[in-house]
Write a structure and sequence with these properties.
The chain is 16% helix and 30% strand. It has 493 residues and is α+β, with helices and mostly antiparallel strands. Strands 10, 11, 12, 13, 14, 15, 26, 27 and 28 form a 9-stranded mixed β-sheet that branches. Strand 27 and strand 28 form a beta hairpin. It is globular, with a radius of gyration of 32 Å.
């Protein structure tokens, strides 16, 4: 009996030991597994799949802006650049994902994709999904076509790690789109949006060099504008439109494209042109500050009255007459955008300069463009006064037609400076021609112009100079050609 009890005690001790051993093994296994999973979750590379499960930290821009919602208007095609910047220290998978929204706030979602087609642009540098390297970027261009009667709103995002999202954009892509939008082709020639930089501060102290070929960006009233600076023989900014030769000045912040008139084509490819020089004074009268105005006030007893938009200038009438004779009512007019023109009548003192005059009657006055371009060498595309923005509109100063003049700031961005000849610049012609930028009143009213030697200068408004019309093309115009002198862009109707 005693032996039996001792045997039972031995068995119990043994079972306890085994039990404890099993528990210990389980605990150790659990700890080991937890450490392994923790390490995996903490972004350690799994050597078998060589990717990450956790979400990537990224910076996403659409057409250069951090907004995530795309709007595609009814019955319109539009191209978009998605730029993804990874700020992680490891490689990961990525995919573009989306939500279809009912409006621009994306407060509610919509499952109705009817009429919406999405394509991978032929100009895209990268695929819509794949591997993004540590601390690197991806540039993806998409084309969206809205065949419905309603605007479509799509919220874009990036999913990383394993590809698992049922709304990944790749499932929507129909096929590759032969991207011949004008804006897309311009940007692609310079490496895409992510590759285009703002100029350094000293850029505008000198003229462009004789072989310069640059596209820079700067803020305008709509957003980022992408503008040409350089020599006419090296820039691919030549375009044929409506039987006329044009130079492309810039892509505006609203994605319309600004053109400046060169002349009428004498053959199909504009191998030769007639310059067809339009001439006009800026204003026939010149003895009052008010005559700096593209449209000006009847009275000039106060500055407010002097800058009222009541009487059309001489040069505005000349531009309207040119538009009526060349573009009004023809088949090309549907491609022209209603984009603002700026007659900046602010005083020098309102943009950082000294106090110099009050801007009405015969008060000696220095205007903003003088300070920006002659003193400070800082051209600007912002038109801060609504009164100086000219647009076909119910609220802004009314103009009849979407035609205007270049500003002196735009000429400076292109590579011109004050009182320095520039024979290679793409804006240089063999005649003097007006800008839209007021300069000063010192006994007579003076506005800035471009000399026949390619220099920025100023003169009395009653001088007889050339007039080079400016128009803006809509953002969805399509082209053939490369934009070179021998292979200009041609609008596809």
């Amino acid at each position: 009996m005693k032996k039996t009890k001792e045997f039972i005690k031995t068995v119990i001790k043994t079972k306890r030991f085994l039990y404890l051993t099993v528990i210990l093994v389980i605990v150790l296994f659990g700890v080991t597994l937890n450490i392994a999973l923790g390490a995996f979750s903490n972004n350690k590379v799994n050597e078998f799949i060589n990717t990450k499960v956790s979400n990537i930290t990224y910076y996403l821009t659409i057409n250069g802006y951090p907004g995530l919602i795309l709007e595609i208007e009814a019955h319109k095609e539009k191209s978009f650049d998605l730029n993804i910047k990874s700020i992680e220290t490891y490689d990961t998978k990525y995919e573009v994902v989306y939500d279809l929204c009912i409006d621009s706030t994306c407060s509610q979602y919509n499952e109705n994709l009817d009429g919406l087609e999405i394509f991978h642009s032929s100009l895209s540098k990268d695929e819509i999904s794949g591997i993004i390297a540590a601390d690197s970027s991806k540039s993806i261009r998409l084309v969206m076509k809205n065949n419905s009667n309603d605007n479509k709103y799509i919220k874009i995002g990036i999913n990383s790690g394993f590809i698992h999202n049922t709304l990944d954009m790749e499932n929507l892509i129909i096929n590759e789109y032969q991207d011949n939008f004008l804006g897309s082709n311009i940007l692609t020639q310079y490496g895409g949006l992510s590759n285009i930089k703002e100029p350094t501060l000293d850029t505008f102290n000198v003229i462009n060099n004789e072989k310069e070929n640059n596209l820079y960006k700067i803020i305008d009233d709509y957003g980022y504008s992408y503008y040409y600076r350089g020599a006419k023989d090296y820039l691919n900014n030549n375009l044929i439109f409506a039987g006329m030769k044009w130079k492309i000045v810039r892509i505006n912040g609203d994605e319309s494209i600004k053109l400046i008139y060169e002349g009428k084509c004498l053959d199909e490819l504009c191998g030769s042109i007639t310059e067809d020089i339009i001439t006009s004074s800026y204003n026939q009268s010149y003895d009052d500050n008010k005559y700096i105005g593209y449209i000006y006030g009847e009275l000039s007893d106060t500055r407010e009255n002097a800058v009222k938009n009541e009487i059309e200038s001489t040069i505005k009438k000349a531009l309207d007459n040119w538009y009526e004779n060349n573009l009004l009512g023809n088949e090309y007019e549907i491609y022209i955008s209603n984009t603002l023109f700026c007659n900046d009548r602010r005083l020098q003192s309102e943009v950082g300069g000294d106090t110099t005059g009050l801007g009405f009657e015969k008060e000696n006055t220095i205007y903003a463009a003088y300070y920006r371009l002659n003193t400070n060498k800082t051209p600007n595309l912002k038109c801060s006064s609504l009164n100086d923005q000219f647009l076909i509109s119910d609220t802004l100063p009314l103009i009849k037609y979407p035609v205007g003049l270049i500003t002196a700031d735009e000429a400076s961005l292109a590579g011109l400076i004050n009182n320095t000849d520039n024979l290679t610049n793409y804006l240089k012609t063999n005649y003097d021609w007006w800008t839209l930028s007021p300069y000063s009143f010192e006994e007579t009213t003076r506005v800035m112009y471009i000399t026949s030697n390619g220099s920025l200068s100023n003169n009395n408004v009653n001088s007889l100079f050339g007039v080079r019309p400016i128009i803006n093309l809509k953002d969805d115009v399509k082209i053939s050609g490369t934009g070179s002198i021998n292979d200009p862009y041609i609008i596809i109707k």
